[in-house]
Specification:
heterodimer; A: alpha/beta; D-Maltodextrin-Binding Protein, domain 2; 2 domains; 6-stranded mixed sheet; about 45% helix; globular; B: mainly alpha; MetI-like fold; two-stranded antiparallel ribbon
């Protein structure tokens, strides 16, 4: 698990036929409870957690019990922090034990969590992405209302209300934020820029001029690996927001507005501009994102469009390489010119848990200053207030965290809004960046496919 | 030999039937049941009748996946079965190193498919890949291509890899058959003045008819269950150009969490594969001369 990397990235799991057969055969053994109803709203950065709702009471029994906490692996170092948290929790609450269940991240995301939740021994606390995935869990009856709990000072002193974006559904809070990532910026190789006296662009026109100069110098301007569709899909999400505004962009991806509007076609025109001018690698749709990253870090392109996790790749693959980044360049449009594309992650509590209060106590320790510092030390960006205080963090990581926390508009990548519709949206973006279709053709086709999907 | 008790046959067959029921029968029944339901994997399945099937028949990507699968079958019949047959003929020729050739051609069959897919992804890579580098080295830059990123070449490129892997498998099958061709027939034909060409096409090939039919059936049905090669090399892209039924079902179930719809598509595919098998079995009736075992 890599914090808040785009969902579609994580969908590239090496799932096999055995898992397929198991899933199709219905391996769940426990009964799921249908939702009590109510509409599920998509992530909304403007909704703050409500304190009105109450948390289901835990049993008053003084018998020792165990709470189960599950997540995908974020690497040994971060997994180890949860082991430390377990020890601290058990010391603080005698009689309670914590079982940490860490699965391989792709397995967790595809079938692992679902199988755990529907098992007879379901987890009490589970890692989840806000937005579409969380909404499904809530609809299916697996999300405990944490509204009252997060009004407690243990949470209010550590988390800004804006951190709950996408975690509030029908006015109720269903998750506690953990980490966040900027999903897309343009990273550049400082040595190449310095050698050619190039400066980071602020406007789209400057960006195109920079790409032209890079191409003329025989350097691939931008490299990306869009085999799994999310890298260019993320850029398309940001372009759409900048062109038509956040509400219109979200409405298009959520199916409330047509995807092939003139504004969206104009946004995709920017992708076409990159493709037609040869400003992006010709192999963009055939290349996996990790290979594109490796090539960028090897100095084979001037820029790459990818998220904040590039820092950790750079540290391990090219520790001496100097990197800079710039946000999506501005251009005239209805969106906010300082918007940032980003996502967050967090932990939900199983509504069926008999130990909801104990689970909340554990989450309070996850957001506590000690744990937050430990997560930041390991390269994560905690969603807590002032996460890097007293931490020797990478300057780019800190700058990106600041960019995200101060953004006037946080744009949610399409696949965090609606996985299926975003898949069509991302597919259209891939067709345009690959030069296979015009923006109008690609979006018309996407809209046609979206109309065939079942209504939510 | 007569069984000592009338229950003996049932006792002997029972474990196998129970095992088959557990690993095939029950999952199949579960899949059939789910195909009539809407289920995300965590909610309570909701019966929706034939909606999933109606949707599948109207789904352009799903229909396109069948077209891609049939193109893949056509390509692999040539690249796997026909090439395997030709290789078997070549390695059957008495010579000093034919044993090494047999081993060499069979090695890809023993490699994990995921490893092969990754290996060939590098060969096809546009950025320093072996194939494009070779074309550049011989002065044919005009033929350099983004092999896996272009809808016109992606499917054929994956099919070539499949052929590279399985031609050795079919070679082994046909080679075994060629070793069973009665020597007296060949010697009699030689005495009658038959050339090597005549021996191969007029005696060996007709005698391998049954084996060829089995190979074709394996190739066709195997194509429907192919997954890993496509998943690793192209993941169905670009623009669904290499989307086959299995990749689309996996995407539907694991990315979209539409388990019911995925089940319906799986059932349709099962019916298609069984139908092809039955038609093929009917066409095979009539037979002819075949090898004795």
């Amino acid at each position: 698990m890599h914090g808040a990397r785009p969902l579609a990235h994580r969908m590239t799991a090496a799932v096999g036929a055995v898992a397929l057969a198991a899933a199709l055969a219905g391996c769940s053994s426990g009964g799921s409870t249908p939702s009590a109803g109510g509409t599920v709203t998509p992530p909304d950065a403007t909704v703050a957690p409500s304190a009105a709702s109450s948390v289901a009471p835990s049993p008053t029994s003084s018998e020792p019990f165990t709470i189960r906490v599950t997540m995908g692996s974020t690497g040994e170092a971060v997994d180890g922090i949860f082991t430390e948290l377990k020890a601290a929790y058990e010391a603080k609450y005698p009689g309670r034990t914590v079982e940490i269940i860490i699965q391989e991240d792709d397995v967790y995301e595809t079938i692992g969590l679902n199988n755990l939740l529907t098992s007879r021994n379901a987890p009490d606390v589970y890692f989840e992405w806000p937005g579409a995935r969380l909404a499904t869990k809530v609809t299916d009856g697996y999300g405990a209302d944490l509204s009252a709990a997060v009004a407690d000072p243990r949470f209010t002193s550590r988390l800004d209300p804006a951190a709950y974006a996408g975690m509030v559904i029908d006015g109720k809070t269903f998750m506690v934020p953990w980490t966040g990532d900027v999903t897309n910026v343009f990273w550049y190789n400082k040595a190449i820029f310095s050698e050619h006296s190039w400066t980071p662009p602020t406007t789209w026109d400057e960006f195109m001029a920079l790409c032209a100069a890079s191409k003329a110098a025989g350097i691939t301007p931008i490299i990306d690996g869009n085999k799994d569709l999310w890298p260019i899909g993320s850029i398309a999400s940001h372009l759409a927001e900048r062109t038509m505004g956040n509400d219109a962009y979200r409405a298009a991806v959520l199916g409330d507005q047509p995807m092939n509007s003139p504004e969206m076609v104009a946004a995709f025109g920017k992708l076409q501009e990159l493709a037609q001018n040869g400003y992006i690698n010709e192999s963009v749709n055939a290349l996996p994102d990790d290979q594109a990253t490796a090539q960028f870090l090897a100095g084979k392109s001037a820029m790459i469009g990818i998220g904040s996790w590039l820092v950790s790749d750079q540290v391990t693959q090219a520790p001496t390489l100097q990197l800079g980044f710039f946000n999506m360049p501005t251009f005239p449009g209805a969106g906010d010119p300082k918007s940032v594309l980003g996502v967050s992650t967090g932990f939900a509590v199983n509504a069926h848990s008999p130990h909801i209060d104990a689970a909340i106590d554990f989450l309070a320790m996850v957001v506590a200053p000690e744990a937050s510092k430990r997560f930041a030390e390991e390269g994560l960006t905690p969603m807590t207030i002032d996460p890097f205080a007293g931490v020797q963090a990478d300057p780019n990581t800190v700058a990106l965290a600041t960019l995200l926390s101060t953004a006037p508009v946080k744009v949610t990548p399409g696949d965090n809004l609606d996985v299926q519709r975003a898949a069509e949206f991302y597919g259209a973006a891939a067709a345009v960046i690959g030069g296979l279709k015009t923006p109008q053709q690609a979006l018309d086709e996407a809209q046609k496919r979206v109309e065939q999907l079942p209504k939510n | 030999m007569k069984p000592s008790s009338r229950w003996t046959p049932y006792v002997l067959v029972g474990p196998a039937v129970a095992f088959f029921t557990f690993v095939v029968g029950l999952p199949l029944l579960g899949t059939i049941g789910l195909s009539f339901a809407s289920w995300t994997g965590t909610n309570r399945p909701k019966l929706i009748g034939l909606d999933n099937f109606v949707r599948a028949f109207g789904d352009e990507v799903y229909r396109g996946a069948y077209l891609n699968t049939f193109i893949y079958i056509a390509a692999t019949l040539i690249l796997e079965v026909a090439v395997g047959f030709a290789l078997a003929g070549l390695v059957s020729v008495k010579g000093k190193r034919t044993g090494w050739y047999r081993i060499t051609f069979f090695i890809p069959v023993m490699l994990p498919m995921v490893v092969i897919a990754v290996l060939w992804s590098f060969i096809y890579s546009n950025d320093g890949g072996l194939l494009n580098s070779f074309l550049g080295a011989i002065g044919r830059e005009d033929l350099q291509h983004v092999w896996l990123g272009d809808p016109t070449t992606a499917l054929l490129s994956v099919s070539v890899v499949s052929g590279w892997v399985y031609a050795g498998f079919y070679m082994a099958i046909f080679y075994a058959g060629l070793q069973r061709v009665p020597q007296h027939l060949l010697e009699a034909a030689e005495l009658d003045g038959a050339s090597e060409w005549d021996l191969f096409f007029r005696i060996k090939v007709p005698l391998l008819r049954g084996m060829t039919e089995v190979a074709v059936l394996l190739c066709v049905t195997g194509a429907f269950s192919t997954f890993d090669l496509f998943y690793v090399m192209t993941n169905g892209g670009p623009d669904h150009a290499t989307e086959i039924i299995t990749t689309y079902v996996v995407t539907t179930v694991f990315r979209d969490h539409e388990v019911g719809y995925g089940a319906a598509m799986s059932i349709i595919m099962t019916v298609v594969v069984v139908g092809i098998g039955l038609v093929y079995a009917r066409l095979r009736r009539g037979g002819g001369v075949d090898l004795e075992y």
